[in-house]
Amino acid sequence: MSLRIKQDHNRFKQIVRGRIKNNLRKYLQKGEMVGKKGKELITIPVPTIDIPHFRFGHKQQGGVGQGEGEAGTILAPGSVQPGPGQAGEAEGEHQLEVDITLQELAEILSEELALPRIEPKGKERIYTTRVRYTGINTTGPESLRHFRRTYRQALKRQIASGMYNPECPVIIPTREDKRYRSWKLEDLPQSNAVIIYMMDVSGSMGDEQKEIVRVESFWIDTWLRSQYQGIECRYLIHDAVAREVDRDTFFHTRESGGTMISSAYKLARDIIKADYSPAAWNIYPFHFSDGDNWSADDTRVCIDVLKEEVLPASNLFCYGQVESPYGSGQFIKDLRETLGDQENVALSEIADKDAIYQSIKDFLGKGK
Q: All domains of the chain, ordered by start, with CATH?
């Protein structure tokens, strides 16, 4: 019976996984789904899955529960009173909310977008400690007592001594029967990564543009966390001046004034130098803007900072240009002209939420 239940559960999980894959492009655009993220699970509404359920039969058919019921108790079909709305002929939309782990979500994202696995750098420089069980001992703490080995040893002893009674199979372990797991600590190489998010918060970046950045950054986080044991995120905002903020401020700040993109790149450079050695850390700067920079001179400064200091330290530098009715859109053209052939540079134009799907593929499809 338990095997049947497990098989049915696995089959249901495969059905859910298939529905999520079929609707992944739609989920990539949903900001409200990001709000349902827990520590390890995310809740996703999955349409058109029928869940087995009990159905009440008519009273004349007999069975359990027949007899007079209390007034107002509705059990049989056809006994529901009509509501105040108009009758309709269309089928209702049935949705089931399912919980899926972020690891499973990353795997689905990888399969659907054909994302390559990332080979981390610096993984021999950082170590984490793990407990590894290596064998069985006759002594140890009770919390590590191996029940099956203890039971087996007690059974062997009682059979060998003639104390075992098949009519009354009582097994009582003695102190000599107890067996315990033995363990040791081992150092494992661990690859860590840092994502440095930068966003233009000048007046031309409105709520719609920030929502696109918020949704896309969730999927970037999900994928990179599936590739690394440790992820840190840093958040920088800029108009004419850049500063570091927390995540909530990053997505909800709206300011006005001019835009000097070089201020963000210089701050990112300083953070990398201070806290993240490229020999040990996998570094991912992501910058989102509407492409409107203060001047051509500042754009040249940006390119110099990227070429000489940010790109040599980074696994991948990604620039996403979010379309805005107020932005010029010139910056991505300048980056394509000067840095477009760099192996660790990914550029993407994001016209609206529909473009998030392709943008994620542009950013993560290089496997850097």
A: 1-49+95-114 (no CATH), 127-187 (no CATH), 192-364 (3.40.50.410)
